[in-house]
């Protein structure tokens, strides 16, 4: 355990790990013209499209955990870069559907390969991506993500 982690709370460690991951992904996908947030959006969209879905911005926001307004902003920038198409949803005129362009799919495939390499590095101390420990970590992280958080239920801050 590193010195910075001694006595740290799980919340602090999750935050530190998320920052470490964000910075690493930002640096790794920057040569492709992407940020970590943009990568999260296009990689999720790539997977959804492969499953036959053409999601709305709202559906993609729910899937990624990003705020809908931020997804809209990211989608506009990715559209300007030629990586994504936005179109009105024929079933709901208020909704906007998203799809990767050919260039967007190619860029995303390359980015996914790069990020998978980073993930293998990150998970090496647990025995790699396919190890039992990684499977346990994935289950634990999923349980934490599925647990509801209600800031108002935590009570007033200490005086």
Could you walk me through the main structural features you see in this protein, from its secondary elements to its overall organization?
This protein is mainly α and 159 residues long. It is 58% helix and 9% strand. It contains six helices and two strands; from the N terminus they run ααααββαα. The model has no long low-confidence stretch (mean pLDDT 92).
Summarize this, please?
The protein is mostly helical. The chain has helices spanning 10-29, 36-50, 57-64, 68-80, 102-123, 132-146; strands at residues 84-89, 92-100.
Characteristic key phrases:
159 residues, 2 strands, two-stranded antiparallel ribbon, mainly alpha
Radius of gyration: 18 Å
Q: Terminal Cα separation, in Å?
A: 33 Å
Strand order of the largest sheet: 1-2
Beta-strand fraction estimate: 5-15%
Structural class: mainly alpha
Total count of helical runs of at least 4 residues? 6
Overall mean confidence score, pLDDT: 92
In terms of per-residue confidence, which ranges show pLDDT below 50 for 5 or more consecutive residues? none
Largest sheet: 2 strands, antiparallel
Give the % helix. Answer: 55-70%
User: Overall 3D geometry?
Assistant: globular
DSSP E strands, number:
2
Order of helices and strands: HHHHEEHH
């Amino acid at each position: 355990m590193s010195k910075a982690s001694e006595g740290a709370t799980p919340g602090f460690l999750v935050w530190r790990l998320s920052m470490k991951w964000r910075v690493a992904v930002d640096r790794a996908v920057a040569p492709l013209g992407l940020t970590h947030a943009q990568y999260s959006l296009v990689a999720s969209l790539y997977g959804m499209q492969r499953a036959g879905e053409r999601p709305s911005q709202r559906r993609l926001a729910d899937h990624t955990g990003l705020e809908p307004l931020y997804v809209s902003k990211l989608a506009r920038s990715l559209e300007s870069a030629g990586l994504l198409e936005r179109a009105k949803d024929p079933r709901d005129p208020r909704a906007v559907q998203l799809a990767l362009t050919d260039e967007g799919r190619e860029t995303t495939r390359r980015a996914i390969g790069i990020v998978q390499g980073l993930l293998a590095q990150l998970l090496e101390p647990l025995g790699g991506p396919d190890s039992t420990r990684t499977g346990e970590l994935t289950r634990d992280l999923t349980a934490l993500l599925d647990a509801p958080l209600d800031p108002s239920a935590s009570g007033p801050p200490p005086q």
